[in-house]
Design a protein that fits this description.
By secondary structure, this protein is an alpha/beta fold. It has helices at 15-22, 88-117, 139-146, 213-216, 234-239, 247-251, 273-287, 367-370; strands at residues 3-7, 10-13, 26-30, 33-41, 53-54, 70-71, 159-161, 178-181, 186-191, 194-198, 202-206, 222-227, 259-269, 289-299, 318-326, 347-350, 376-379, 388-392, 404-408, 429-430, 449-450.
């Protein structure tokens, strides 16, 4: 379970624990044997030991707005900076920050204190580190190549299961069909010559914006859709780490074709206020989604301090999540949770990943608003989660085994013939050819402390 504790301000979330939970029971095919292994996401990615800015006083005493703040990654020699008037974007951000500042400061303090009373956010004890993976993600390039090949015509052909044995499956198409792993435990699978960890009860489509039709023809209507758009900004253009989409392109997402009645829609937004206004005033109304609340993801270190000073003019220690309901005249289903009120300015506090654009899981915090059996979809995903369908041109990026520690389990040995979990995919060498959906399986749970 991802939620460590919660109170009226929000929740403290353990992102690494959620990832590990989905992969704790795993099968790997080796030398014609199915072996039990355990896959754990490398803790180095969530080892943010101290604030990116050094503070001369407590992070809670003034919200981190000390006059002696300096960047630890820069030379100690100070350079004079020219004073300039704030532009409209900076003025808008300052106004928004003043509106939510107190809620962030007091709410985070309360949640961190609660988490620390349970032994979480008390500082890291394991300080070992290792170099980041050298494997480059070439999934986006493969998606680009796949655009030269036609999509399947019949909607019933848009779904495929990963092979359930250890043999080769040379005709699996990951680019124009939704691929499912319907097993009840994870599997280490070789796809396109690379090893990936596939959580149980997952489905994914590896494609870019122009090849999303198979997801529409998938046959599922979703109760929860989480969107993490590749927003346009100067930093992305400089680094060229991934392609971005314009506001006009985002409007063309076929979201109304994927939503069930009263579907909950959650969109991650950067701190650029033009993006926030676009989601609230243009994108959601264009889709027929009513804005209900704005939540904040607050990023803290392993000891519970803001990763950036709260009042820093450079970067903020939070991001915004805009939540709304898809409006429809269709009769509500018996399992509808749309009557559960969405409180505004709720906080999701967690240690951020050092990997770019890896967001905390929303499975547990949004469960009261969609139900435990909700069908869930993530758009522009870079990883897979149990019980979710995921789409994006790098949808398997953070499932690569270079991000995990893969070790044999204590019982060791191979799995006797016929004992493997139903539908579980073993480590098959699946080479893609560029040319009934399983039920969602929510992760197992553990007690949660609620104040």
């Amino acid at each position: 379970m991802s939620v460590v504790c919660g109170n009226s301000h929000g929740w403290v979330v353990d992102s690494q624990s959620f990832i590990d939970q989905g992969c704790s029971r795993c099968i790997r095919f080796q030398d014609n044997l199915k072996l039990r292994v355990q896959c754990r996401f490398k803790s180095q990615w969530f080892r943010v030991l101290k604030s990116h800015m050094c503070l001369s006083s407590s992070a809670w005493s003034d919200g981190g707005d000390s006059e002696t703040v300096h960047n630890t990654n820069r030379p100690t020699k100070r350079r004079k900076r020219r004073h300039h008037e704030l532009n409209q974007g900076e003025i808008d951000l300052q106004s928004f920050h003043e509106k939510i500042r107190l809620a962030v400061l007091e709410g985070t303090r309360s949640l961190v204190e609660l988490a620390q009373s349970l032994g979480f956010l008390c500082g890291a004890t394991d300080t070992a580190s290792e170099p980041p993976p050298t494997q480059d993600c070439g999934l986006a390039a493969l998606c680009e190549m796949a655009k030269a090949f036609p999509l399947v015509d019949a909607p019933e052909q848009c779904i495929q299961q990963l092979p359930a044995d250890g043999g080769r499956a040379p005709h699996v198409d990951f680019f124009s069909r939704v691929t499912e792993n319907g097993g009840d435990c994870a599997a280490v699978v070789t796809l396109m010559g690379q090893e990936y960890v596939m959580p149980p009860c997952t489905a994914f489509l590896l494609s870019d914006f122009s090849r999303i039709d198979p997801l529409v023809h998938y046959g599922k209507m979703f109760d929860l859709i989480v969107i993490d758009p590749p927003w346009e900004n100067k930093s992305v253009k400089r680094k060229r780490g991934y392609s971005s989409l314009s506001s006009t392109q985002l409007k063309r997402l076929p979201l109304p074709l994927l939503t069930s009645p009263n579907c909950l829609v959650a969109t991650w937004v950067t701190n650029r206020q033009s993006h926030l206004r676009f989601v609230r005033d243009e994108l959601y109304p264009h889709w027929g989604v009513q804005v209900l609340a704005e939540w904040l993801w607050v990023k803290v270190t392993t000891s519970g301090q803001f990763v950036f000073p709260l009042d820093s003019n450079h970067k903020k220690p939070y991001e915004v999540l805009v939540l709304g309901r898809y409006q429809t005249s269709t009769v509500k289903s018996t399992s509808d949770r749309s009557d559960v009120p969405l409180e505004d300015q709720r906080l999701i506090v967690s240690i951020p990943s050092a990997l770019h654009s890896q967001k905390p899981s929303l499975s547990e915090v949004l469960k009261p608003y969609v139900g435990a059996e909700a069908k869930r979809l993530e758009l522009f995903a870079r990883s897979l989660h149990p019980g979710w369908t995921s789409w994006g041109n790098e949808v398997l990026k953070f499932q690569h085994t270079s991000y995990f520690n893969v070790t044999p389990t204590d019982d060791g040995g191979s799995i006797p013939e016929g004992e493997a979990a139903n539908g579980t995919t073993a480590k098959a060498d699946v080479t893609p050819v560029l040319s009934s959906p399983g039920e969602s399986c929510p992760p197992r749970h553990r007690p949660v402390a609620v104040d």
